[in-house]
Structures
1.
Amino acid sequence: MSARGVLRSGSLIRARRICVAAVVVLAALAGSPGPAQAEQPYEAGPFGASDDQPLPPGWRIGGAGGAPELVWRAPRAVPMGDARVEFRTGDRLLGVPEPAKDGRTFRLALGETRPERLSDLQVTAAGRRLDAAADDTHESASRVPRLPAQPPANGVDPGRPGSYRTVTGAYDLDPVRLPGYDTPVEMTAEVVAPKGATGSRPLALFLHGRHETCYKPGAEDDVTGDWPCTEGYRPIPSHLGYLRDQQLLASQGYVTVSISANGVNAQDWQAEDAGAQARSSLVRQHLARWAGWTTHRSSAPAVVREAAKADLSQVLLVGHSRGGEGVNRAAMDSLYPPPAAEDGYRGPVRWKVRGTVLIGPTIFGRNPVADVPSVTVLPGCDGDVSDLQGEDFVDGTRGISRGTALHSAVYMVGANHNYFNSEWTPGEAVAPAGDDFTTDPEQPDPVCSPGAATRLTAAQQHRAGSTYIAAAARLFLAGDDRVRPLLDGSGSRAPSADPARVLTHAVGGRRSGGFLPDAGAKVTGARVCSAVDPDPAVACLDPETPGSSPHFASWETEQETGRGAVDLKWSAPGRAARITPAEPVSLRRSQKLALRVFVPPNTTGTRFDVSVTDSAGRRVTLGSVQAHGLPGSANTASYWAQELRVPLSAATRAGLDLRHVKSLELTPRSRSGRAWLMDAWGWAPGTSAVRAAALPRVDVGRTIVEEGDSGTRTYRIPVEVSGHGSGQVRVYVLDPDSGRAENRLVTVRPGSHAIDVPVQVKGDTLYSYDVVHDIAVKAVHHAVVGKHRGGVTVGNDDPEPVVTLSPVADRVTEGESLIWRLSVDAPAAVDIWQPVRVLPVTEGAELSTKDVDPQWLKDWSGEAPDPERPLSDASLWAWLNIPPGSTGVDFVVPIVRDQVAEPTESMRLAPTDDNAEPLPGRPVLTGTVLDRP
């Protein structure tokens, strides 16, 4: 059916108005879809002021071949970083867009998402808005950021160089092919090792994060994400950025190797897991070579033969940013093998990972390895992975396995993301580099702008990073418990890291008897809040709160189950908050009670009394704790829990039954305030022997099917469960239209089909878009998750309708309307989009901005008729939409009737591509307006 006039029984076709550079883009959006039957026609028209808000600046609806894409163009290039660029509508994740070569344009196929659902559009990367500045107007002027006090020096300082001489050199092996990556990935590395050391020495392997891959020597800013590098460009040696860390470790007796991953960085944008499996494969490819070289020294590269022999039973993996998630996955894959089809290494595991160091890491999969000890460095001024999601390498291990592995978070005030790598640091890097934390020079950030009292210099930051990497090596590889107080929340400092202010907390180790809000605990005098929830009354932090919390970083869904905190808020001292676990906990082998608590940034002097009650009803106040907020701003994730400890000696003296403690109370002693309790544990010094549990592993695959022409078929989302034993995972089923999720707790066993998600596919002969039916999986108890997201992609297999633009009324008199019709040769099941553009006339007089209805001009272009100018100078570019079931839409240009004698005037209209260029071989149509006699 072709249609004409105004649709009276449904909604008008409407348009959102946006501005990209100097071009005003007019996107015609559909109202309610009409049935494929005779009816009144649709008329393309813009949104009125009372209808809806326009798309924000920089956004437009685009797409080739009728399939709509949501397109955002940044005002300047977005650096190639580790955080994923994501499109969101409010709190809901729309998807991960594809970046263009220019570094500014990002495109996301809309699929089944209706354009009218695109409200509150946002571009984020690790929770940080890329399309808007952070709002710091709520911050109290009296809350001035202040540096935390320096804790006392630890007895052992791991940042001091050792006595070994070192040898440095490189190796470059044949590249390897990894599943899903078209271009082979390099096997290049830099080795720094002790020279002349006797016996086998522990091995520390470094993996850098995601960064530009190539640069043009002599050019100020000419970098690319290509691989291999094109002529005239050289590889950016990101793997050389940890030489100082390597040299410190080598002087202390460790063999170190830093591997290059440019080939992964150039291709991981198209990987569903953002490259985690590929990085794991690359790490294990290198470890396999080292394992072979220990037994066949003559086959090793020269630098390896010259270095001390590596002990592959003592391996530390160090990863920066996406490299952090990569080495976490390598530790997982070394214990729980991944599906062979997804893995780029299939040989034996001849090494043992004793620990990981994760620097400003991503954790898109929210899948930490609970039985491998870890240290996660959280940079307080991270401008890349700015939500500090790596906190989940600590929080996410609770309740998963035995809880004996120590998982430490190291919050480094004033550190940014890049300066842990000297090849990402201006003045040190061979390629262009910059500070990832950027703010408006006219409104400097009070915490993180260079020169702020709380901001570290590059040299200070790198030195502090080296020190804490060495601390992890000394604890996890050498077993030296004297460095543990630097990592486990004990409040000691390493003088080598001065003047950096470094705070730590931890879970695992010799902690026991946890009070956790997520384990069915009853809470009175406070509320249990949800880490991720769209309802401000339920969420732990209101979305309007300046700044954010690493503990509440968002994931794949707008709402998560079983992840929260205890939120305390009081206006007078004395009202206790009581946490009563589902079962009494035992603190019998503990010396202290360790609480992880945070208060709002820049606040001081929040005090609590801490009390416990046993099953017999005996209640004892253990003592008081005091919390100060971290330095923070609207741009930082400073709502971070500090570890506060109180001795249990008072409970022992009072005869409390520490084997059966039924409740914990926090009683505020400050006049007013707010605080959040993440958890509380019995604490004892030392670390426990760690033995990895035999766990089931879950990996979600992807099946791609065609819809067919008729009938209904049922497919199931492919899920592989391997490993040993049984465990529990939470499965989120994502609605392909709304993006909202339903979830359920599932018990999994190897070879089982407990995660059974059927997808019904109805065949038809109407053109449509591909539809993605996905699930996301998180481990809950006694399980690990590898590839966390996958599903069934239903591909359209029907031909795209042929789109034509034809005149309906192209020769009219003043006071009438020029009309063109956009038509398809067959109705489709989805919106069909086609842009048209007003072009300058090639002969005769052109219609001016005063010849068309002024409201029409304002609605479509945002401009006024004055000063009078040719209509094509209004840069009108209209995205016309043919709704599902319809075969046409009219584009109507109302012409005003005036009293001025004028010659015959015209305008030209052409269908274009999504860059506003007229389509080759397609006619340019002319509309003519005659002067009324």
2.
Amino acid sequence: MALKYTTIFLSTFLLLGSGFASAQSSFKDVTQYDDSVQIGYEKQPFWKVTSAISTVEGEKLQRTFTTNVASTLYGRLPGLTLMEGSNEPGFSIGSNSMFARGIGTFRDDAQKMLLLVDGYECDFTQLSSFEIESVTLLKDASATAIYGARGANGVLLVTTKKGSTSALQVSLRAQVGFQQAKRMEEFMGGYDHARFYNEAYKNDGKGDYYYSPEDLEAYRTGSDPYFHPNVDWASQTLRKVNPIMNYDLSFRGGGERVRYFVMLNVLNSKNLVKPMADRSDNTKNADFTKYSFRSNIDIDITRYLTAEVLLGGMVQDHTTPGWESDSNLFSMINGIPPISFPVYNPDNSYGGTALSGNPLAEITDMGFYSRNSRLLNSAIKLTGKLDFITPGLSASVALSYNNYFKGYTIRGRSYSRYSITKGADDNPLYHQHSVNTDLGNDENRAEEWNNVTLRAFLNYGRTFGHHDVNAFMLFNYDELAISRRNMPDGYQNASNFYNWNRYNILSDNLPVKHAGFAGRATYAYNKKYVAEVSFSYEGSDKFPGHGRFGFFPAASLGWILSRESFMKNVTFVDFLKVRGSYGVVGNDAIGGERYMYDQTFNSAEGYLFGVAPTDPGSLREWRVANQDVTWEKDKKFNIGVEGRFFDCIDMSFDYFQHKRNNILVVPDATLPSFLGMIPPYLNQGRMTNSGFEAMLRYTNSAKNPFRFYVEANAWFAHNKIDFMAEEVKLYDYQRRTGQSYGKSYALIAEGFFNSQEEINASGLTYEWGTIRPGDIRYKDMNGDNVINDNDFYPDGYNNIPEITMNLESGISWKDFDFSFLFQGAARRDVYYSISAFAGDSRIPEMARGRWTPETAQTATYPRLTTEVDNINFRTSTFWKRNGSFLKLRNVELGYTLKNFIRKGSNLRIFANGTNLFSLDYMDGMTDPEIFGGYPTLRTVSLGAQLTF
């Protein structure tokens, strides 16, 4: 169907184009499209590329000022969707939060994208944007099949900067800015908290009020700050803005024999938490500092032998007061009511209760966490020309070693805090809830990974008249070893990159290993027709010996129509290419357990023996082994068209369909739980993912002194679960098979019950409690008059957007330049609710719209209650929000002083804004991508860059 419409589109396009025809005597030149594009293991000229890829230059990433380089990719790569994680410095977006063309598998633990730095698996989020030359997303089978059992979820290629044959080029850049929380959850102050609590207290039939009129007046006026406190814990513990700084120095150049790129970079952020180290010796100020370096050297040892030496690294120091993550502080200040206790008691001791610590004390006197991380990227590659055998033949061998280590210093202590009550003479009585202790010292926690890769290449490239031939074969072996020491159970690797399930034997972690062959052959005729085949034959140690290796082929075709004779008179078409691909790619990160083909046994309770009965313990069979467990297979189809028209308009369009099978499932549909065993994981799941990508760009004439471009991109991906072996359901609508991955199952809200008479007339009962006026009315989906878990219904979209868009523009005039990037998301739903007074917590501002008999027709929040509310805060469409948004991701204005110091030296001064605003449907309550914890940050900065 897609091919049919593409053909109709092209035919119509060409027919209309003939009306603009004028005489032209030769084929249209494509040499202007010879710029190399990075693909898997090599570069290709743009005109020859038949794969679906997206690329962004590293210079554009520098326009987003952030501590996490992954955040610079928002809206930059068509086809790439990122889910915003923590904005806290030192916590990065992991590969499990990055999706190429949507989601291809319904297992959360099998969605890991393959991340490569200079071709070797490594965590690129630890890099600096100033060492990145380009980032390329490989999307279809033609681009990813050579990665075999690891390419199905997409491949992200990060290419670092290399030297050039030129005089020494020096760049010195400094950028200083301030960050502030863009949007934080809003809660009521002390007076309103007490006033609304009285209303909830009365709703529960407990009395007319809990806080007396005198109490309310004291909260309103602040006349009794110790026994009627009104504390804004956010202002006590957070600063309005925090500084962020970046300094970069690089050297680039070289001659015919040696070319080099060397970089040093320092990035520092002070965090939003107030500095308290000057008040106490029991803490350290929040701080994040990262030192990055890179040295890439290319050496022509002889006419026939070259060497590529890549060396990069990072040292990172990260300190947080009180907790391991400052997100804990935000959760605490959002949870403690402002009237709970004062910051300080009359005797200057810390206020607090048995259940609640003092947020200010937590960052001042509870110690600190300090982490030191180190990353090393290293690789050497030797290439020898074998022209003496046949022209165009060469061989290469490469060795890479990557290492990441993170060590912890934990200096924790407890502090004294006191609650106070009034004595007989109105003097405070103190009730101690903790005691002061000395700072502890724990340096036993650590985590580390090591990755070793060995490769051998045989390359061939030659042109025979109109025939252009390129091919390579490679052997690849790599292994990854992960170790952790005294890390908490369930703790995810801090780099958020390697998350393999490990298999322990005598506490030693067995490395993950891959080995195999891969190759690609590309043939082009007269720069008009292009054919390409690629394959990988790869093995993974996750699978049994008889099924350890798999074959993953792909093929693609390209047709450059603008080179055809029938196009020579279509003058407005400068370049037009149609391409298509099909292939099979694998995913061996399938989730589950490490060696599922190996039967394992766990310890269990045994029988009691002897006069004094003792339990000697026993072994029990664990999950039943699957001797045929294998990788997921993804059959990828892609067809695309790209072109340039009128020498100013560029466009591209791709349609894709991915069919994934062998997804790991537990066969709940066929094996009942009463069999008394833990059923095996089976490769039975299936899922389909399809969509499109579109790009349109306008660039004005290079002869115009006012230069500008504007580019718009949109990409859409929708998936459907075809089979997941789920357990038998009572009702068809409960099945996830046939739905999209992550679709919410929610109660369907139909307003409020406004009276007891309405409740009685409905005939409904709720399994979770007695219905009262002001409760949400839920739709009875199965007609049994009982609202329970059987009434949850598939509704809306996932929180991962199906549509992502961007609008990018750049302007230059004389010595001024200006650029901006908008990024948006659509077909996305989120659920956002805060239960007032839950667990003696705060009441949100949204509760001002609470239901009362007087506001029944306009209420936007359920009735208030001081009790546990098991009815109104379940997942329901009442709390569903349209998660679509449009964000100004960055904007930059610069001015360049040419020949600043001497001829050829330039000084560029610029102002930059990152994440300045968001248009969304959250009504200012929170950011549409972050709910709770460390907030989204807005950054404004000034900088200067001197080049000579």
3.
Amino acid sequence: MSGCEPGEPSALPPFRDPRLPVGARVDDLLSRLTPDERIAMLHQYAPAVERLGLAAFRTGQEALHGVAWMGPATVFPQAVGLGATWSPDLVRRIGEAVGTEVRAMRARDPRVGLNVWAPTVNLLRDPRWGRNEEGYAEDPYLTSALAAAYTRGLRGDHPDRRRTAPVLKHWLAHNNETARDTTSSSVRPRVLHEYDLAAFRGAVRAGAVAGVMPAYNLVNGRPNHVSPYLREHLRTWTGQELVVCSDAGAPSNLVDSEHYFDTHEEGVAAALLAGVDSFTDHDQDASKTIGRVRGALDRGLIDASVIDTAVRRLLTMRCALGEFDGPGGEDDPYADPSGAGFDTPAHRALALEAAEQTIVLLKNDGLLPLSPSVTGTLAVVGPLADECKLDWYSGSLLRRSTPREALAARLGADRVVFVEGTDTVRLRTAGGWVRVPSGAAAEKRGPSREPSLNPAHATIRADLPPLTIGDTPTDLALADWGGGVCTLRAPSGRYLTVADDSFVRAAAEQPGGWVVQETFALERHGDGHLLRHGGTGGYVCVAAEGLKVADRSRAEVFHRHVVERGEDAVARAAAGADAVVVVLGNDPHINGRETEDRTTLALPAAQDRLWRAAHAANPRTALVLTSSYPYAVGDATDALPALLWTAHGGQAAGTGLARVLFGDVSPAGRLPQTWYASEDELPDLLDYDIIASRATYLYFDGAPLFPFGHGLSYTRFGYDGLSVRRAGEGAVAVECTVTNSGPCDGDEVVQIYMSAPGARVPRPHRRLIAHRRVGLRRGEMMRLFFTVPLDEALGFWDVAHGRWTVDPGRYEIHAGASSTDIRRTAALTLDGPPPAPRPVLRRGLEAADYDAADGTVLVDRSKVRGDAVACGDEAVGWLLFRACDFGAGAAAVTVEAAREGAADGATVELHLADGTPLATVAVPPTGGRYAYTTVRAGLPTSPAGVHDLHVTLRGALRLARLGFSG
């Protein structure tokens, strides 16, 4: 801070004076801004205000696992890999390194922003989600703990200044890419409070978060960008001024795709009123957003105070980043004008440590660790064996380490045999062979990786000659990624791709880009194939200048000639080796990524054949799955002696894997989500009710392939001395002893779960409430202590009374090595009065507060707030409300409902659990989905006392509430 005394005169305006409170500085600056300048600040690209010396400011620097989109930077493992570390300490240090590199890179390029959009805290509810790689875990506690750690590292520990300002993505209940901007997640109150909100709540309360980004989807029929939960929940969790940044293009979606509002003025006004502060729309063109805000003002949809509130939040964030401090930056503890914090030796070592800690040993029958003295020759095979893949939110690699490179460095290149396992093919047309011109052997380049604010604008180089037809074929490496999607690579190492001029060239170093231009599909046509281009949907034809993409009517028929099958090459290499490491998995840009969900958990058939071929030739075969998501690999699990999984591990992935394979490091990664035996065990991708659908480890009733929290070690750990007790009125204290009883040093991830046997409502089989990753030397014993808030440990959302509650009764606390590998259990009994029934005569029943439902969806009660219940795909829905107290007797019911159409009938039927009918209430047309009416009906049979109430909905109505009177 400045050395000036408060009484000394200063030429600085108050907003420049770091001695003043932030609120006073922001108020001063806001008062100096004109109305037009304030409106302009609402766009992602806020312009400079030269008369006040304010620089331009951009919200949104991607930094999920390293600085992204701005050129080379340290690349750490994918977020799901960081989730597998179960290590808040490591994740905090990575956040600190990423934040430090943001500052260092900004010193070289002022376009690098300090408002970072990371981490992603969406829960990994369904492993088919295309963005599975971006989340930490399927569990809200673990996700929140890691998000709090990463944001703490990004923010820094200074009480007043921020290294960066992290924004959590994506609010709320967002786990599908399929029609992601128009689908609605039906989220009942228990799932909302216990699951989706919980992941955000803990991270925000930890204090380092600067804001959130709403998701593209709708929740209960209402777009997230006008979510009342921003006000009702998010802003109640902290006293800080949180900034809400829209997702790209989402403000326009309110009208264009979602049709939720009739005009963009209404949409932008509603978003501002809901709490959105920064509008990411139309890329760098702010004029449309500015025009819409002005239009909303002119129509009286908002007033100037609404704009001031949003701008004040944005200025508060900028002030905390040191932007308004005096010249020289001496008051900013995170200033790095020389860029010294970039690509440091410490960051490189941290990237290696992270790569090691992400690796999960799924199975080991004694093959691992490998011994250099016993392993004379090692076959390293598979399409990921010599790759260091990036994803959409990666920076460019400063350095890289592939499994082949690392293992060759470990053993010597002469002892490592590498085979990629792709098919070598030639393509022939009626006019001759497909060939890559020799001019295409120039310097390797791919989709532009120059620093860009929007890599979706990267273009494919078009200066190389297109593929042609001739007498001499070119051998192409065909990689089949499943689902009929393949890539083709020329001998130069470059992938076939399509530029803006539609010609096919060998011009891409890797598949990539917002729309991947390097994928093709071979569609059977007669005795040959048509070659469909994935990026454009067009078909490859032969033009005078070479191969290009056109419509299907011009498609050429190609005949595929296989020179060598990948599995044959793999079998040959495996047969001559002492051991085999097969590296399979996904390319993060293909078949499961942002905009594209997976349809299967299976390995691509071509990859499945590779491990089978290797194992048939050599039983000493280990399978390494390098992927952004789980696979269903039951056959491999049964057949192979060793299985490992790692997310794409960043720049040090290969070295980290080699060190684990040879025992330099005992693996201690743990699965952050359930691995299912088949996609048949999953509910519909759009079914967000994890309680009713019995989804995630919390409720899944089957036997997973590998459970949440699973991971093996090269050593053994014993558990003993578990105890649990109340710690005052508001906490639970848990203790246990862990001993390394195995042959080597290693880390153990101690996991503490709770269960509530005999609970009055469905509770999780087990729920993670605490954990710790600890390093223990061989023979070392450690006593661990955990203190967990009582409501977080044992509570749930009580829909009967609309509050978080902890029931009296018996609870079990479990300590173990996974959600199913429980080593010790202790009981805790809470005394107290029994839960009260629903006071329906006094409070009535909110329709959304049901205990169970079938055939219904939750919808928006109004465009501003509240939920209602409607029938789903069928015209009949059913609700159950347990333990309704009708007192001395209810004589009448009131039904608050809306009915948009006049066709067919619409009724609400009530009966008791024993089948006793109470009433059938007809709902008349009300003139609109938000036009509610209240219909009263007498109850011929007057229920008294406590009963379960069953409600049947018929027809196109929206039920908001039931009321009862005596």
